[in-house]
Structure formats: structure tokens, C-alpha cells
Amino acid sequence: MTHLATYNVPLALIDSYPNRRLIVRATDPQAVVNSLLPPHLENLVALQLLDISADLDVLDGWNRGLPIEMVLRNPAGDTMKLYRLCRLQRSHPVRVVLPIVAGFGNAARVASFLHVPVKLEGTPPEPELMEEFSTTLDFFLHNKAVSQPIDYFAGLLTALLHKQPVTLWELQEEDPSIVVYVTDDGGETIARPPFTGGEDLDTFRFELTRRVLEPEAECASCDFFLNCGGYFKWPDDDYSCADVKQIFQRVREAAYELQDDLSLYPTVPGEPAT
Amino acid sequence: MSNQLSLILLPTNKCNVACEYCFEDKTADFMTHDQLSLTIEKLLDHMEQQSIDELIIYWQGGEVMIMQPAWFERAHELIAGAASRRGKKIGHSLQSNMIGYSPKWNRIIAEMFGNSVGTSMDFPNLYRKARGHTAEEYTQLWTRNVRMAREAGIQIGVISIPNKESLRAGGAAFYSYFVDELGVTDFQLNTSFSGGELNESKTESILDMKPLAQFFVELADVWFERGYAAGVKLGPIDELFNHFAGRMATLPCIWQQNCTDNFVSIDARGHVAQCDCWVTSYPEYRFGNVFGAKSFSQVMKESKSRRHFVNRPEAMIEHETCAACDYLSICHGGCPVRAYSITGEFFVKDPYCEVYKALFSRVEKLATELSRARFARSLPVLQTRGGLVNQGINL
């Protein structure tokens, strides 16, 4: 892959990626503080932590301003622990990553109440989670306490509002030309579960697009392809997007409402028109 | 990203009055300048370790004006010197009952405290008394001293706790007493808690939540009608209004995400605890002693009591109904000392929950009404449809 990409690497492999932009992935914050030397910090763009139960206090005064992403593998069980991020927010921009599993909606809600940005993992939602998914979208769109993005809702809303042809691959930082995920055993793959590898990262987006836009494929006639890019057709080409399209539809309706409302306001000289 | 620590410092645990509902277990201890210097140096070490740039010291007691102005002048010099040597900022705020105030305090109040003092008075005053004197005598002395301080140009902020007679008098009378009668334009509501050794007044000061909620709501309405446009500050109602109007707001400590992130208290004996409400009255919840400890950071890091405070908001999410509450973002389960002193339990939500929710709801409604009124006065084209204001879509 290109050297312009950012590599999400486990702490143990950091020396295998010199002179690259790095997201370092770790379970133990103390090990991060102990292992990362000044040369490492030069290329460090973010820290990804995998255990919210670890002692986060060691990061309080360390490398202030470095973005930290906390991945919650068990949102239902770990929602209360989101409060541990409040202190971390004093010295670092913090984002929480939530897999789409039962309880993610409540975790997203509490994170938002703590003013922590949320990234929902791109795994296609199972049918039994669509109600929770829909409620979370409602919360993001309409709850007055939401002051930080819940992505990909926020990114999608912005893209649709401003008619930008940006796809979920870019919004979710999972396009392999942007971010490459390095597995614990050194394999390079897409930065989204299941992290199993096997793709040719140089041709991944091209090949996926070619497959999903075949004449009979669902994406070929989908209104949202411009902002989706076949995102939910990986890793399973046969995934049915019927439920996901409803989510896209509601975000698009919200974007239209915003466009209408904003168009009523006079543009201030010097301010870009919407 | 906040980078400030607030210290509630009690240079003396002694008080010159005997308010019946006071939560502090008072002693005759005073802090010496040597002890103060030691404390400040340890705090500065902690600030360096934690990359904290600024410390705000809230001077309280006991009663601070039992100390002499000369003591504060020397303290000011010592602290400014120590802060300067470390490249840190230390600011000061004064809370006094004003019973010991005289013009000899004016210079240090101006130089050290920005010519501002916070004090306390209730309407009507039931529990604030000097030993052997009545509440009326206390009120007269306090009123005289506050007027004298204001004539000297000192800005006075007042904290007030509604009591059973406040509820009987109603929000309008309460507001009129402070704003119209005393001329106070900056006051703050607080709620009672029965800290320390229980007595009849403390028990009586914990009001039924429903009428108290109604009182807070009524007062919010009175403030909105008479005080908002006039610039009267009535905490926490004015700051809640700012919050719901989408402006920057500073909400009180009882509604912080986690009070351990921002506050700590040290008393005249060097005891460290979460705040002044804990440091004298609940020895079992002290974090340690700063005079004897190797470092302040060590006290904070190793205290098992402090872990209770750190973990409390998590318990609110796990065991209480807070996660389902739409006001979680501005409350976080409320104040631990109110929970503990009133219920005897630490890991439960603030028993004033019902009062807070009623107040949040009312102030939110007032802020929305004001937005709608402004919307209606705006360009005609904006009035033709329900736009952003009505849809409530987040940008």
C-alpha cells in the first residue's frame, strides 16, 4: 500500500512501520506510555485503546492533544464505564467506537450526554437490531443534548446536506487507501471487523465497485450508492440493504429539511452559501 | 479541554457563628503560613505532574474572617511567589458569612479577591444565628455589613437555601427580598443537606420535594419575567437558561460529570476530601492528609475513599434510572453529599432529583419560548413555516 496511508498497528509492531503515519492500537495504556519513544511520537496520529477497564489515568499528562479512540467491544456491559473518558477528555480529544450489537444505542446515548463523539462500527446491522438502530438515529437527529457527532449518521447527513460524493468508506476511515489495519500477526487488511484479511488492498475499492454495480446487483439501482460505495456489501456481497436504505432515506429527508430551512435564511456577505 | 483545578481551602475550621443547620463539624484549628506554603508546594507538584495550568482557591471556613487581613496579605505573597516560580496561575475567591467584616478587609478583598465576596443568607432566616442571639439579630448584622461592603464597592454574591417559610412566602416574595429590598443582583439557590451530627433544624431543613420543586419553578418564572432582561444573575436558573438557549453555560458542581475531575478540599488540619461538605464532617470519606503525605498526587492516587467518588457516576448508570433520563447530560446523578447525608447511601442518585427535573423542564420551556418569540419577530419569510426551531434537527 501507499506510504500516504495511515496504518493502524498493534503496539508490538510499531517498529515495523517506520516513517509511516500511525494509529497505535493497545490494550494497556501504561504499556503505551512505557513503549512509545519520541521518534514514535513524531508519526503518531492517534491512539486506539481496546480496554476501557484499563487504568486511563496514566494518559492524563501524556502527549496532550493526541486523539484517543476507545473501542467498546461490549457496549451493554461497558456503558457505565464511559464516564472514565471524561477525565481523559481534559487532555485529549476522545472518540468512542461502538460495534452494532445489542446495547449499542444506550452506549451511544450516554456517550453523547458526556459530549464524546461516537463512531458506529460499519458492520451491517442485524435485522433484530434495526429498531435500536432507528432509535439511535432519532436520538442523533432530534435530541437537543447531542453536541457531538454520532458517525456515520453525522458524516452522512453532512455529505447529503452539502451534496458531497463522499462514501461511507471515507467517512468511516476504512478505505484502505486512507487507513490500513495491521493485524496482530502483521497481516494488512480493511480497518473494519472481521479483520480477516485476504483482500488485495490496492484494488479493493475498484473490485468491490465493479462487483456491486453489475447490472442485476442491488447497488446498481440504489439511490444512495454515491454516498455508500457498496459499504454494506463487504464482507458479504449478498447482504440485503433493505433496512439500511430506510436509514439512508431518513437521513436524506433530514438533510432536505435542513436545506429547506437554511435556504430561507439570507446569506451573510462573506459567508459561504449552503 | 479543561485544564483547571479548584481547591476549596479552609484555613480555619473555626466559626464565629452557630448556624443550626450547618453541615460542618467545626474545630478550633488554624492553618499556619508554613503549613499553607507546604500545601501550595505539594499542589504545584501535583499540577506539574498532571499538566494542570491553573488553580482556583475558594477560601472558606469555618469562617475565613476569623483570620486577620494581615494573614491573607502574607498568604497572597507566598502563593503568588510559589506560583510564579513554577509558571502556574493561582486565582482566589472568597466565601464569608460577612459577620466579621469591617472596612479593614477592603484592601485585601480588592487585591486578592477581585473586590468580590460570596456570602450566604436565607429568606426568611430561620437557622443562621450567632451563639446566644436570634436569627433576626444575625440578619440585621449581616445586612448592615453587606451594605457597608457594597458601599465600599465590593461586589456581593449571595447563596440562599430555601426553607419551609420560603415556600410559604413564595418565589415572588423570595426574589423581591434579595433583588428589590437588598439590591442583590447576583444570587444563587442551594438545597439543604443534613451533614454532620443530626439535629432538629437539619432534619426540618430537608423539605418535601414536591413543594420545593414548585418553588424552584415559580422562582424561575419570576426571574424570567423580572430578572432576565434586567441582567439579574440567579444561579443555577440563569446558567440553565444559557444552556437550553444553546449558549455557553457554567453549571454548579452538583451537576458536573464527575466532581473528582475538578474539585478537592483541604481543611485547616491538612485533611483532604472531595469538598468542604465532606472534609470536616465525614472522616471516613477523607482522602488523606496533605501535611503528612509524601505528595498530594499520592493522596489523590492511593485514596480508596476517592475511588468511591470517581466510581459514583458509573453506579448511577448501572443501578439508577439516570441513563434513561433526558437530562443526564446536565445532571449525572447529582451531588454525592446530598445523596449520602439524606439517604445514608453513597451510590444512589441525589434525592433532589425531582426538584432538578422540574427546574430543568421549566427552564428549557422558558428558553424555547424565548427562541420562538425571537423567531416570530424575525424576517417575515422565516415565519412562513416551521423551520429549524420547530424541527430541532442537530446540525
Element layout with pairings:
The complex is a heterodimer of chains A (274) and B (395).
Chain A: E1 6-10, E2 21-26, H1 29-35, H2 38-42, E3 44-49, E4 68-71, H3 75-78, H4 84-88, E5 94-98, H5 104-113, E6 118-120, H6 130-142, E7 150-151, H7 153-161, H8 168-171, E8 179-182, E9 188-189, H9 204-212, H10 225-228, H11 242-264
Parallel strand pairs in A: 1-2, 1-8, 2-3, 3-4, 4-5, 5-6, 6-7
Antiparallel strand pairs in A: 8-9
Helix pairs in contact in A: 5-6, 6-11, 7-11
Chain B: E1 4-9, H1 33-49, E2 54-59, H2 69-86, E3 89-94, H3 106-113, E4 116-120, H4 135-151, E5 155-160, H5 164-169, H6 171-181, E6 186-189, H7 200-205, H8 209-227, E7 233-235, H9 237-244, E8 263-266, E9 271-273, H10 276-279, E10 288-289, H11 296-302, H12 304-319, H13 336-343, H14 353-377, H15 388-391
Parallel strand pairs in B: 1-2, 1-8, 2-3, 4-5, 5-6, 6-7
Antiparallel strand pairs in B: 8-9, 9-10
| Oligomeric description of these chains | heterodimer
Number of helices of chain B: 15
Mean pLDDT of chain A equals 93
Q: From the 3D coordinates, which CATH architecture of chain B would you assign?
A: Alpha-Beta Barrel
Summarize the structure in words:
The complex is a heterodimer of chains A (274) and B (395). Chain A is built from eleven helices and nine strands. Chain A is of the alpha/beta class and 274 residues long. Chain A has one domain (6-260). Chain A has a nine-stranded mixed β-sheet. In chain A, helix 5 (104-113) runs parallel beside helix 6, helix 6 runs parallel beside helix 11 (242-264) and helix 7 crosses helix 11 (242-264). The longest helix of chain A is centred in the last third of the chain and has 23 residues, at 242-264. The radius of gyration of chain A is 19 Å and the shape is globular. The mean pLDDT of chain A is 93. Chain B is an alpha/beta fold and 395 residues long. In chain B, 44% of the residues lie in helices and 11% in strands. Chain B is built from 15 helices and ten strands. Chain B has helices at 33-49, 69-86, 106-113, 135-151, 164-169, 171-181, 200-205, 209-227, 237-244, 276-279, 296-302, 304-319, 336-343, 353-377, 388-391, and strands at residues 4-9, 54-59, 89-94, 116-120, 155-160, 186-189, 233-235, 263-266, 271-273, 288-289. In chain B, helix 4 links the parallel strand 4 (116-120) and strand 5 (155-160). In chain B, helix 6 crosses helix 8, helix 8 (209-227) packs parallel to helix 14 and helix 9 packs across helix 14. The model of chain B is unreliable at 385-395 (pLDDT under 50). The chains are: A alpha/beta (274), B alpha/beta (395). Chains A and B meet through helix 4, helix 5, helix 6 and helix 11 of A and helix 12 of B.
